[in-house]
């Protein structure tokens, strides 16, 4: 088979993986090429292109092969699907990566694979590509490797030495979902890989405190992906799972992938367009968990197990807790300002700096580029701000909701 | 009223020193006016005293901001910078500490625009290999919004230190011959030479696109159409969008279960492979 034909099949097969991070994380993990080598990794990644699905292209994201022994119902590469199959050689992947990298098309390589022969064999094949790039070509660009569930520990160790990031997809939010749709995968085996990677990363960090030269281990950390919408599991369960993964394994990112209707899909799956708005709301909630100090319980109390699609989760929280607002932007502490809809981490930083110099008015906030339309009902400023009094009215919550979501804006058919 | 013509940061620095030494307030200087003859009171700049030897202490933050803002395409850039310099150095106002101050806001917005342009240059430069003698040189042409090649070039030096490369923009160009950058004038867009790897890149771009999710506005926000001329993969976008509904329709409509043949094959292979991923 020609290289272009293989590339078309094996990129198409990899497109369901949402991960696109290409930054190396902390400074001590960054690589630069030695004599005759190529490339570097930076703290922040770069998106080199965008496709019409709105996703960025930062990496050469491919499978080594889409042959697979597993029969996961949501996956186009499952053993029982009719999809055309292909397999790259190590040399081909190495060549493509270097060719693309030299032309500044990509930040690096994202390599995954169907499970062939055995987990160890598959993992060895992935490692062979990374080893060749690093050792034969002194390539210092970004490498993201999938860790194969059930692969031997020394293989995980070796993968971590070459890769900037390792990942293993948790696939579905509950063990029950996994049993239904991915009978060949077991949650404990997936989490075992995450634990091994976390232990190795912690170990490396501890050693680096004592010794000058410690071999790198996945300096960009680890990430995972969850498919959303393939099972009826609630957002509360999804976010709880994500929170536990962040807590237990120190993940850098949990990616949520709206279930795409895949060609040759199994008849047991619901056939509907991917729930893109829901995916977006989950990412917003994920950010609230990690950077804004919210708890899962605050974002999704048991009484509201699913995220509203017409309101962002911060507005929804504010409307459930009208007693906390309006907040005085000239006095409220940082943690509370972060709860104002529309105020981001940087915006709050600017407010804190600016209010040392003056009493802030709406005009000042506008100059700081804060989205006032959303924030106005929840804040008090040095000048008059009539919408701030809406919440105190008897039907205040409903009034504010109507102010923020005009009825015509509801287009949930997405 | 004084009129001053400055194009680069070093030129600005030279003028600003003399203006500060002569105690000329920002309201008395016109920076980069195109038609100074229209001003009846235009004084000669050379009448100013030379800069004093005493160093002017410019806060680090303002100096860093000036480096970036000086690359902005706005003809007002130096007027604004001199205003900030005057306020900080002469009036001792902690201007930059107050993000809601209009001048701070404006300078930071400009710096952000330049920063974004640099970032987009890092992302959107596309090299094409060319044989020069027995060596391969990687050449690119890019049209930035601002004059940023000096800010953007170090990234490429770091990344492609051991290959020969050159980047041209309409206003300036540079080429890397290890261990030094060589600067040159701006160049017009070059003739496109075919590159087989570019075809592979376009194949990849088409394949990694998920036709079930169309978000064209999102794509255009991050990859503005004014850059498309130098991004070879964007030539495929119209076709990808035209094909997308049909591809999704196939996905949805056919909703194929596995064919009998695939299922038999699966059963056959599964019978040969009895392994299960080990439980913990």
Could you give the topology of this structure?
The complex is a heterodimer of chains A (414) and B (280).
Chain A: H1 3-12, E1 49-50, E2 56-57, E3 59-63, H2 90-102, E4 108-112, H3 119-136, E5 142-146, H4 153-162, E6 165-167, H5 175-181, H6 187-210, E7 222-228, H7 235-249, E8 253-258, H8 276-291, H9 296-299, H10 313-320, E9 327-328, H11 334-337, H12 345-354, H13 362-367, H14 372-375, E10 379-380, H15 396-404
Parallel strand pairs in A: 3-4, 4-5, 5-6, 6-7, 7-8, 9-10
Antiparallel strand pairs in A: 1-2
Helix pairs in contact in A: 2-3, 3-4, 4-6, 7-8
Chain B: E1 2-4, H1 9-21, E2 29-31, H2 60-69, H3 77-90, H4 102-124, E3 128-132, E4 135-141, H5 149-159, E5 164-168, E6 172-177, E7 180-185, H6 196-208, H7 216-222, H8 237-254, H9 260-272
Parallel strand pairs in B: 1-2, 4-5
Antiparallel strand pairs in B: 3-4, 5-6, 6-7
Helix pairs in contact in B: 2-4, 4-5
Can you give a write-up of this model?
- The complex is a heterodimer of chains A (414) and B (280).
- Chain A has helices spanning 3-12, 90-102, 119-136, 153-162, 175-181, 187-210, 235-249, 276-291, 296-299, 313-320, 334-337, 345-354, 362-367, 372-375, 396-404; strands spanning 49-50, 56-57, 59-63, 108-112, 142-146, 165-167, 222-228, 253-258, 327-328, 379-380.
- Chain A has 414 residues and is α/β, with parallel strands linked by helices.
- Chain A folds into 2 domains: 3-232, TIM Barrel, CATH 3.20.20; 313-405, no CATH class.
- Chain A has a 6-stranded parallel beta sheet. In chain A, strands 1-2 form a two-stranded antiparallel sheet.
- In chain A, a hairpin with a 5-residue loop joins strand 1 (49-50) and strand 2 (56-57).
- The longest helix of chain A is centred in the middle third of the chain and has 24 residues, at 187-210.
- Chain A is globular, with a radius of gyration of 24 Å.
- Chain B contains 9 helices and 7 strands, in the order βαβαααββαβββαααα.
- A 5-stranded mixed beta sheet of chain B has the order 3-4-5-6-7, covered by helices on one side. A two-stranded parallel sheet of chain B has the order 1-2.
- Chain B starts with a strand and ends in an 8-residue tail after the last helix.
- The chains are: A alpha/beta (414), B alpha/beta (280).
């Amino acid at each position: 088979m020609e290289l272009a034909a293989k590339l078309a099949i094996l990129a198409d097969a990899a497109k369901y993986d949402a991960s696109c991070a290409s930054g190396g994380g902390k400074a001590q993990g960054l690589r630069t090429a030695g004599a005759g080598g190529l490339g570097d990794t930076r703290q922040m990644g770069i998106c080199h292109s965008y496709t019409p699905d709105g996703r960025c292209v930062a990496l050469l994201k491919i499978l080594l092969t889409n042959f697979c022994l597993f029969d996961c119902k949501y996956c186009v590469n499952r053993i029982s699907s009719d999809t055309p199959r292909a397999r790259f050689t190590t040399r081909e992947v190495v060549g493509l990566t270097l060719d693309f990298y030299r032309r500044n098309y990509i930040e690096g390589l994202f390599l995954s694979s169907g499970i062939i022969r055995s987990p160890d064999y598959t993992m060895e094949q992935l490692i062979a590509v990374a080893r060749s790039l690093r050792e034969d070509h002194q390539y210092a660009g970004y490498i993201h490797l999938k860790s194969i569930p059930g692969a031997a520990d020394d293989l995980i160790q070796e993968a971590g030495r070459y890769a900037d990031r390792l990942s293993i997809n948790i696939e579905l939010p509950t063990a029950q979902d996994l049993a239904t749709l991915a009978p060949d995968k077991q949650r404990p085996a997936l989490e075992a890989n995450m634990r091994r990677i976390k232990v190795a990363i912690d170990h490396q960090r501890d050693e680096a405190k004592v010794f000058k030269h410690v071999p790198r281990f996945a300096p960009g950390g680890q990430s995972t992906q969850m498919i959303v919408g393939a099972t009826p599991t609630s957002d509360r369960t999804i976010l709880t799972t994500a929170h536990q993964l962040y807590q237990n394994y120190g993940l850098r990112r949990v990616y949520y992938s709206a279930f795409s209707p895949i060609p040759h899909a199994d008849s047991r799956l619901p056939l509907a367009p991917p729930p893109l708005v829901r995916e977006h709301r989950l990412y917003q909630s994920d950010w609230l968990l990690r950077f804004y100090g919210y708890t899962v319980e605050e974002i999704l109390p048991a009484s509201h197990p699913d995220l509203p699609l017409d309101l962002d989760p911060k507005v929804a929280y504010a409307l459930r807790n009208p007693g906390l607002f309006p907040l005085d932007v000239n006095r409220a502490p940082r943690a509370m300002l972060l709860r104002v809809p529309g105020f981001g981490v940087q915006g709050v930083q600017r407010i804190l700096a600016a209010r040392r110099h003056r009493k802030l008015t709406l005009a000042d906030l506008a100059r700081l580029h804060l989205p006032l339309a959303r924030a106005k009902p929840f804040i008090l400023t040095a000048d008059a701000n009539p919408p701030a009094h809406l919440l105190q009215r008897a039907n205040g919550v409903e009034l504010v909701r109507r102010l923020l979501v005009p009825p015509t804006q509801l287009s949930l058919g997405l | 009223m004084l009129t001053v013509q400055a194009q680069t940061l070093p030129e600005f620095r030279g003028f600003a020193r003399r203006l500060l030494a002569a105690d000329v307030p920002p309201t008395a200087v016109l920076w980069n006016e195109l038609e100074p003859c229209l001003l009846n009171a235009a004084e000669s700049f050379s009448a100013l005293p030379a800069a004093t030897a005493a160093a002017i202490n410019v806060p680090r933050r303002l100096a860093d901001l000036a480096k970036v803002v000086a690359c902005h395409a706005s003809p007002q850039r130096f007027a604004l910078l001199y205003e900030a310099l005057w306020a900080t150095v002469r009036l001792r106002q902690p201007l930059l500490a107050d993000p809601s101050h209009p001048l701070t806001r404006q300078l930071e917005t400009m710096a952000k625009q330049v920063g974004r342009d640099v970032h987009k240059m890092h992302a959107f430069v596309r090299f094409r290999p060319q044989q020069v003698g027995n060596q391969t040189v990687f050449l690119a042409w890019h049209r930035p919004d601002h004059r940023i090649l000096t800010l953007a070039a170090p990234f490429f030096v770091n990344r492609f230190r051991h290959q020969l490369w050159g980047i041209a923009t309409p206003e300036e160009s540079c080429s890397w011959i290890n261990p030094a950058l060589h600067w040159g004038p701006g160049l017009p867009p070059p003739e496109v030479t075919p590159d087989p790897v570019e075809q592979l890149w376009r194949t990849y771009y088409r394949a990694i696109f998920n036709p079930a999710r169309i978000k064209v506005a999102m794509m255009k926000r991050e990859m503005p159409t004014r850059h498309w001329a130098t991004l070879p993969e964007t030539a495929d976008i119209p076709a990808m969008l035209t094909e997308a509904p049909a591809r999704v329709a196939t996905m949805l409509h056919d909703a194929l279960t596995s064919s009998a043949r695939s299922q038999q094959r699966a059963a056959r292979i599964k019978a040969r492979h009895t392994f299960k991923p080990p439980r913990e």
